[in-house]
Specification:
Chain lengths: 795, 356
Amino acid sequence: MKFSYSWLLEHLKTNAQPEEIEEKLTTIGLEVENVQDTGKVYQSFIVGQVLEERKHPNADKLRLCKVDVGKEKVDVVCGAPNVEKGMKVVYAPVGSIIPVNQMKIKATKIRGVESFGMMCSEYELGISNEHDGIIHLNKNEKVGTSFAKISGLNDIVIEIGITPNRQDCLGVNGIARDLAAAGMGELIDKKVINDKGSFKSPIKIEIKDKPACSAFAGRYFRNVKNVESPDWLKNKLKSIGLRPISALVDITNFVMFDLNRPLHVYDADKINGKIIVRSAKNGESFLALDEKKYELKNGMCAITDEAKVLGLGGIMGGESTGCGLDTENIFLESALFDEVNTAKTGRNLSILSDARYRFERGIDPNSTLKGIDLATQLILEICGGECSEVEIAGNIKKNLNEISTSCYYLSKRLGFEVNEKEVIEILNSLGIETSKKENSIKCKIPSWRHDIHGEADISEEIIRIKGYENIPTKNIRSKNKINQNILNRSQKNIIKARRFIASIGYDELVTFSFTDAKKCDAFGDINKLRIVNPISEDLNILRPNLLPNLLNAIKKNKTRNFESFSIFEIGSQYKSTSPEDQLNIACGIKSGEKYTKSWKKEQNDFDIYDVKEDLISLIDFLMPSNKKISVSKDCPSWYHPGRSGTILINKSIKAGYFGELHPRIANSFKIKSKVNIFELYLDEIPNLEKKTTNKPPLKLSDFQVVTRDFAFIIDKKISSEEVVNAASKVDKEIIRNVEIFDLFEDESIGQNKKSIAIKVILQSNEKTLDESDISKISSSIIQSVETSTSGTVRS
Amino acid sequence: MIDFNKLEAEIAEARDKFINIESINEFKIKYLGKKGIISLEMKELANLSGNERKKQAEKLNKIKDTILKTIDTKTEEFNNIELDKKLNSETLDITLSTSNSSGTIHPISQVIEEVIAIFGELDFFVAEGPEVETDYNNFTALNTNENHPARQMHDTFYVETITDGMPNVLRTHTSPVQIRSMLKQKPPIRLIAPGKTFRCDNDQTHSPMFHQVEGLVIDQESNMSHLKGCLEVFLKTFFETDKLNMRFRPSHFPFTEPSAEVDIGYTKKGSQLIIGEGEDWLEILGCGMVHPNVLENVNINSNDYQGYAFGMGIERLAMLKYGISDLRTFFDSDLRWNKHYGFSPLNIPSLIGDLS
């Protein structure tokens, strides 16, 4: 909400300086968002007159002008299509700063011709969006006078943010009232003539939709002359960024911003019969004042006559009964429209208007007739004519809210002992009438406040006016601890996983929870949960997994000269929109160069064993004991079918996957290097609360350690894990470790065969193993491996 | 009979003439080898009578010790010389290096953990809720009915599924976690809820996804002054400053009454923001006393219980504390940015160690 300081002073008698007012506005909840001292902004702009005007020798669209600016005559090159000889213009001399872009005007050569200063459009001056031509001032303006002075811009314009609850401050009068309550002066009770009218209105009003329109008041004016508004009115509107149109329209706008009372004027000669307020019918349409045609629906509040729709109640009037300069007879409307209905209709048709903004927040019913009085006074004054008696349909309800509160309640909520006298003073200053009954204070809420429903709201009024700075600061540490744990097990797992993954070289990314449905096509059968109103088409679904966004990151960073990627994200992916289907995933990618070629190392690329190792050490870190990790083959469709694995915990829990990204998907992201990924379902990590902090006892043997190597030739499709398992199970006590130290595939050992060499570490807890013990175990190992893999030992 | 005096003189003389390990070995053989002077004399001892033998043996052993000590000392001397010579030739170019970069923690994760560390110390626990919410939890239960003007200001994302006749939404704030938590747990309640939030807005200062942290305290006495105390402790600890100008001013959120916005003071030194002191104000968070209607919506009697709630933007906290100037860069995945603004994984926020 914008208003000028001089406008405020018409409602507030005060000795306070503008700076004090600005500060006070913020402390009472009317946050000052912008202050513009227009006198300063426009101080260098003056009235000029175009004396001569001819074509630029080097440019078709430019004109060379000689402009009289009072003290001198200057040459200005101008590109405006409307420049003409004799025209009075707003001239910005060299050195002035153009408000809209803060550009400083310099003497310059334009296409070889010198130009001193500039002639401005309304857009350039920040007055409106009009930039089709330069401002054409009234021919009576005197050359050399200050533009700020003749346009009423010699003022301070304050813009405040109005929170949705403070509908009462959408008019200058309401702002003044709040400032007066906060000790910034006295509210001026402006005297408005109450003209009874000299004849009965020939246009009657009927309300058929009472829920949508509880009251509709109006009056007929005859023989008015709609003219250009007088300067004081035009300047007022201009100062708050409104464009003067004609006196009748300007008057309604003025009353709206002055009293927070939306009004509407109809060209009465275009109304057929009486005005009927009713619910619109499906299929009806009307052309609104914004020159757009709207299709109406049942339930919308239509203002109609006996033939057509005239307007949408509380939102916008129609083109068919709009007032022009030739309008002679008018009908003035001041009505009460329902908040919810107005909001719904406005939202439905996407119409934003100052009237809708106010009606959907709630209008003071008492303003209905006050608005008519003020508008009548101004219409008769500016446009002449005669007014009828006021017609009223419906009921201007005034049932006021009553709330009981107490100093006990207020103190308990605000955190300090409130003073009863002060409380009552504050309430009264806000127009809340109070009466005392024992310890309770009965409050009668004024008609303009729609946001005070209960005691809590009263507490806000008290502290708002008293000042939030008066709330003391108290320690919140309580004697009794409320919470046993700050984080639960799974929250801890997420934090631990994040730290661990970063510690082994991955950079953490945070990407959007949305992704591109098209990009997910290559992933095969995967959920695509559409967002109804996406911000853009490439962010139109909730991500079914973390990969598409991470792959995009790789693609983008390749162009930034990165050759090696170790990135990860921990976040949610969505199986459905129900809460339990929002899964916590850790997804890591290693791609490109593991070692860049250096003086020390050959270049080497990441492969799936890098991510497998990372995934298993991550699970080890999150679950240090009581688990068995195994690998199986069935991976989702986005993995390379032959180069991927599923990680199982304790054989049954599918904890995650590792492997190479399916080359088809890599291709669709235009990534040429191998992409090695792991995904860990963090919610699947069993939430084992530790039973004890003790670790299992450590048994150390001091007997000699013996190492034996074996090599087997087995089928290619037999996994090395089977060899290790077969060897390990021979003697769980003496065989301490089995490790693969060589893998060899070659035609020489047979087609589809491979050689696997294992190193077995033997140690007993009871004795030093002698040759016969060792050879017994060795032959058992050979037998076990040969039996379970159908392989043969290599001698 | 051997002349011991002569022998000692001989040994002393030889000792100064060693030129290398080989000469020491020759010396060792000459005296202690199988046919060495001392060894032969030792053999002779058998021919001597008891007393004579004891005396002679003592003398021989003494001289043998001297010889051995001489050998040891001289051998070490020569070994050291050899080693020094070898080391002098064994030089590496110490200006060469191999690189090994650790990964990084994203600033959002780091700041969330900082916030948890501080509020954990104040006896808050971390609550969570889903990112796809029901319209009821995101708005209605929070005293924001269908036609409340505040809803228009939220720019809500909708998904295709429906709960109780209303399309589900991507939560526009972390406040629905208040509702879920209060339905689960009776007061006293002290929680924070960090997480992702979404609004259909995308420009220089808005991102369709961002992060908030919600706070909620419900018991029988918590009031505006505790709210002020709580936020003061938090902000001072977070920004790691003892001096913090703080300003509470009235605002409006449908789910709190009274509501406040909190500003903190700052000054600008060049391009750097100094948080805490100064004439200028930065809006940092919104808060207020929980609206009685919200308590009633979760079956908590608002005559018996009251409390406060607050909410703030994680990105904003991160930007102010770590001097990050553009909101949208958080989600750009530009590795240059991540490596520059990211944190070491070993830099775990804690009030015992370092917060940042």
